[in-house]
Amino acid sequence: MHIRRAREALAAGRPATRRAFVGAAGAAAAVVAGGVLFGCAPTAKGPAAGNGEGGGQGASASGSRAQRVEALMGSMTEHERLCQLLCVTPEALTGMGQVIRASDATRSALVRRPMGGLAYFADNVGGLEQVAQMLAATRDFALDACGIPPLLCVDEEGGQVARVANRAGMGVENVGDMADIGAGADTAEARSAAEYVGGYLRGMGFNVDFAPVCDVASNPESDTMRRRSFGANPQLVARMVAAQVEGFAAAGVLCCPKHFPGIGAAVGDSHEGRIVFEGAEADLEATELVPFRAAIEAGAPMVMVGHLSVPAVTGDDAPACLASAVVDGLLRRRLGFEGVVVTDSLSMGAVERYCSAGEAVVLALEAGCDVLLMPPDVDEALEALKAALGEGRLCWDRIDDSVRRILRAKLGHLGPF
Fold it and tell me: Of 9, 91, 333, 389, which is least packed with CB atoms within 10 Å of its CB?
C-alpha cells in the first residue's frame, strides 16, 4: 500500500509525504523481486556493511559473492578495471554540455570508457520521469558496454545541499538542514529523514547518496558546515549519523558518510583552497573521528575522504585523500574500515593548488582510496594511472584491491548482474 501510494503521488506530480516514502522503503525491503518505483532496473539490498562477503541478493546462483567478484575480475580488461575506479559527471563522460538524458553520446562514451560511476548535479535534474529515464538508460548502456552497472551518485543531504529536493516541481519534500534535526536530538527523526531521502532517490534510480555529513561543527569562527552538520557535540553527531546510515540501508541506497577525517572545525572552503585542522592528533581522535567510528560500526558501505590538511598526522599540508597516513593509517587501520573509500571531488581548489590533476589520481590510490571522484579530465586521469603502472609507482595488485571492493559493493547492493 505504501509503495502504491508513493508511486501514485509522484506519477501524478503531487508531493509524496515523508511517511509515504518511509513506509514504501520498509515495504520494499520485504519484496525480494521488487523493482524501483519508476520501473528502473531492480535494486537489491545486501547487507548494509561493506566490510564483509555476506551473500546478499547480489550473489549469483553460481557461487558466493567472492566467487562472482573473481569471475568478473577475470573477464575484465585492464582498461575496464581502471575505468571502474573513476566516478565522473555525465558531461565529463560525454564531452558535451548540460546532460539531461542518456543519448547515443552516452552509450558511445561508456563503450569507450566504462566508468565505474557517474555523479549528478542539479543541472541534470529536470523532473521525476526525466531523471528516471536518464538513469535507467545509463545503467543499461553500462551493462551493455562492460556487464557492470555504474554507481549513480548524488549529493542529497537535505537542506541547502539537495540536488533533487531543491528543484521546483520534483514533488518531494526537503527534509531540511541537518543542524535542525540535530537540535532535536531525536535519532528516530534522523533515521526517518534518511529513509525518506533514500526512498525517493531509489525510486528515481540513484543508488548512492553522498551523505550523511559526519563533520562536527565545533568552531565558532567557521560557518562552512554549520547548517549541514548535526551539531557541535561529537557524541550527538555520532548518534545521528549512525541512525542515518541505518535509514539509508533500509531504503536500499548506498550511503557515503563524509568528509573524513572531519572538516567541521576548519576555517575556509576546500572548493577554493587549502583548509587545515590545527589541533593535535589526540584532538582529532576525541572529536572529528567519533562520528566516523559510529558510521562504520553502523555498517557504512562507503566513506568519503575530504581535502582537509592534517599536519599533526601527515607532517605536511597534503589533502587528506592524498595522504596514506590519513586513508590507510587512520581510516583503514585505526578505524578498521574495509569498505569503499571515495575521494571528494578532485577538481576542487585544495587539490588543484597542491599538485597536478594527473598526480592527484595517483596519490589518491597510493594513499588507499578506491573511487576517484570527478578528476578534471577523464583521459588525463586514465593516462596518469597507466603511466604510474608503467613506472612501477602503482602495481596491478593495488588497482585490483580497489576494483574488488567496488565490485563487492555493487554485487551486494545494485542487484544481480
Answer: 333
Tell me the pLDDT of the chain (417 aa) as tens digits.
333 334 344 444 444 555 444 444 333 333 222 333 322 332 332 333 344 433 333 344 346 899 999 999 999 999 999 999 999 999 999 999 999 999 999 999 999 999 999 999 999 999 999 999 999 999 999 999 999 999 999 999 999 999 999 998 899 999 999 999 999 999 999 999 999 999 999 999 999 999 999 999 988 777 778 999 999 999 999 999 999 999 999 999 999 999 999 998 786 555 656 789 988 999 999 999 999 999 999 999 999 999 999 999 999 999 999 999 999 999 999 999 999 999 999 999 899 999 999 999 999 999 999 999 999 999 999 999 999 999 999 999 999 999 999 999 999 999 888
Q: Kindly tell me the sign of the dihedral angle through the C-alpha atoms of 324, 329, 335, 340.
A: positive
| Domain positions in the chain | 2-413
- Judge contact between 297 and 331, C-beta under 8 A: no
State the cell numbers at 382: 586514465
The answer to whether 354 touches 318, Cβ cutoff 8 Å, is: yes
Q: How far is CA 388 from CA 315, 322, 341, 345, 373, in A?
A: 24, 15, 20, 21, 18
CATH class of 2-413: alpha beta
DSSP 244-261: HHHHHHHHT-EE--BSBT
**Cβ–Cβ < 8 Å for 350, 341:** no
Q: What DSSP assignment string belongs to 263-322?
A: -TT--S-TTTS-EE--S-HHHHHHTTHHHHHHHHHTT-SEEEE--EE-HHHHSS--BGGG
